[in-house]
Amino acid sequence: WWIVKKLWDKGLIYQGYKVTPHCPRCGTSLSSHEVALGYRDDAEDPSVYIKFKLFIPSLLKRDSVLRSILKPAALSEKPAYFLAWTTTPWTLPGNTALAVAPGAEYSVMEGEQDHLILAMQLTGRVKLEGYKEAGVILGEDLAHLQYEPLFDPHDFGVHRVSLPSLYVQEARKDLTYPVISADFVSLEEGTGIVHMAPAFGEVDFDAGMDRGLDFVQPVDLEGKVTGTYLFAGKFVKDADPLILDDLKSYGLLYLS
């Protein structure tokens, strides 16, 4: 410990944060050895597609091609949504960004009531009856658009802090989150749009630190949802169907 103290005094030891696997029964992080022994493998993970509503003012600041494709959305005639796939609905209250592949092509699918945005090569894997392609946009052109949060943490008594400083943020009337471009986005499954929750994934957290994303932690050390959500107090896996029901009531659950 004497050596460690000397190194610390000389500023030679790095102090930071990382996301680790967690045991809600013990209330502690799991070591790499414990993880290697294996997780419980009979937990059921639902496959769901969630709609994240495009924040129109962010669209109006972009190039004319993008505005032209989404003209009905810009005119508030039909809303536009980013369509993201997830198997962990319980992480959705912690969502603070969406990630797209910068070089991939994304289809804007126009339906009777709205527009859906997803990777062009994955449109055939999602049920899109009644939708037709209105245009194609590169992922890098979607980056820096904003969308409305599924759950504004301030409405449910949960802190929102900024990375990497971890400063607590004040409530905002029109809170929005960013679309970012990232090389880790896969086009093998899902929609080519990744839901990011820095509180719940190592890749998500690292992206949050690099991009200055917000950090929202709505789950306590016992694995129970905090705050005043309709599903507050529930263990995360028990909260899955309740979260989906809540999103469905707002028209944000596209497919399950």
TrEMBL record:
GO BP annotations, alphabetical order: isoleucyl-tRNA aminoacylation
Protein's organism: marine sediment metagenome
A GO molecular-function annotation: ATP binding
SUPFAM superfamilies, A to Z: Nucleotidylyl transferase, ValRS/IleRS/LeuRS editing domain
Name of the protein: Aminoacyl-tRNA synthetase class Ia domain-containing protein
Keywords: Aminoacyl-tRNA synthetase, ATP-binding, Ligase, Nucleotide-binding, Protein biosynthesis
Pfam families per the UniProt record, alphabetical: tRNA-synt_1
PANTHER family (UniProt xref): ISOLEUCINE--TRNA LIGASE, CYTOPLASMIC, SOLEUCYL-TRNA SYNTHETASE
Residue ranges of domain Aminoacyl-tRNA synthetase class Ia in the record: 1-56
